[in-house]
């Protein structure tokens, strides 16, 4: 056992070289994470041990001249977790997010991941986490499609063509070999065009269409990925939705609660994570600082429009404890909130790839720590 | 504005070279932080925006064979904050802690600090935070002594001779030029001896004594630093305490509540941080996972043994809004819990020193981020 601590720095190119964009591997790893979640072989923060992470945000009207002002997706967030199974490793993702970054040619969020020895706490790796985060977030819809989509799905659509929309669509297409048509809608036409080009070069057999409204997008779609950012929250009209359709929602969206209770099966990543929100935030939980469908469900439960009986967990479906659909025609909404255990799993996998292939920069923390000598 | 993101890596030796152990400067910076706290020019996480951080801990009896088991100081913790004033910077300290590290020749906690641009979220620096953390934690008692100790203090003592005990004692001696005697008590005799040697080589005019009991240590002392670790919680008997004495407690300790309500003035770093604990933990708040005097006060309030009227904040004393002592003989207990704003302030200062003196390793995150191209 050495007193010396070294760790690996992986910048964005290193992460690419180490396979961070390997969609199939990432979907398989995320499926493993859901099994570990179902087995409770993980630890996260928060009162219930299931917190998404700790957010630092800013006021709408700061009292101090120089204090940053609240805005769409304006926050810092620390997401710590331990993951068991064959991972047995801890880590923390830490990011700052600001929609104004786009004007500077920077991504909306800049994310870094630290991976740590579960026993000593020593850093194993410090990694650029933009692609890590986008890929793991995209891979979850891939797992969703594997277990929740109708097997003959032909039309797949995305609302939102940013980083998450892109990686989600790649994962869905990786998983669903039957797709013939992809529809894209984004408030930024340019983003739609960039995504169209990426899909066309990767999946030559699909017909990619940029559409001009949410209605046009949802109608006739078998799988709809909702990857909105900022405070964009599309209202999905019930009459647009095809029977047996699957929504995978990484971003915000609203549905008609009366329709939903009768016709939609809600599947979440981890319901305890949303229960945790009650200790972290005030009603309405689905708000402009943090809008996701899981929080919308919390609000509906608070408003007595539905109960937790309408909510299933993906891990229980994977482990065949429950069925996704009660009836063939049921619509399924797979509502995602993001959890640090995903980052730990994918970071550890990419880190192992990097070690095997000699990728990255080895950094020395100390030979012997000053306060042990 | 460049799309390229670089940041500085500072390992432990770099941190030393950049002045992380400059006690006087650190005390001055911590005094500034308390003024910013009093002005509310900061942001932290949690429901009240005043959280110490997010802890990931382990069960006493894990259900899974490979899951780490709870133990003294066994946790991971993410501590995010934004700090205003002339700092205007965000950051997150992330550490893992395990008392068994000592057997491996590693520090009990291994800490890393990320410093971020407040607007873009881009990392500015990734730093070894063991000395950063020890020095900022030690400097707070220095601020406490500056405002709360009797001016002619002759006898200063420490319960606990570890990293925090050491840096606290250095800060107290840096601040109090009248000290003639230093008393040390630690359950590990070896730690006491190491600290004795350090003090003797730095402060040649003081008589350093290793004592064999808490009673011997407290009796006759003008200032007592309590820097215990793990689940060590000394019970301080009322009859041992000298009139007008000051306790600075970074660790756990218990006092007799009946005596305390009549004779002790409690001064805390940030009372809202302890109020936040009610959303994060269950009563009893002062427990073996996290024992500090601020949590003991929460318990006393919960048990209706005292009220918040008995509690003052150091920032209000610095800003002369209230007096530390009502009566000359009053004992003062300065109860500390640790806040990420301290880390941000001291990290930013050391980072600036490093930039000016060309210390550290420049790392490139990306030239242009993959998902902006």
From TrEMBL, chains A, B:
InterPro entries (UniProt xref): NAD(P)-bd_dom_sf, ODC_Mu_crystall, ODC_N
- What are the protein's UniProt keywords? Oxidoreductase
**One Pfam annotation, family name?**
OCD_Mu_crystall
User: Signal peptide: which range, if any?
Assistant: none
Coiled-coil ranges per the record?
Answer: none
Q: What is the enzyme's class at the highest EC level?
A: oxidoreductase
GO CC list:
cytoplasm
Q: Which GO terms describe its molecular function?
A: oxidoreductase activity
UniProt KW Oxidoreductase keyword:
yes
EC number in record: 1.5.1.51
Give the PANTHER family listed for this entry: KETIMINE REDUCTASE MU-CRYSTALLIN
Give the protein name, as stated in the record: N-((2S)-2-amino-2-carboxyethyl)-L-glutamate dehydrogenase
Originating organism: Phocicoccus pinnipedialis
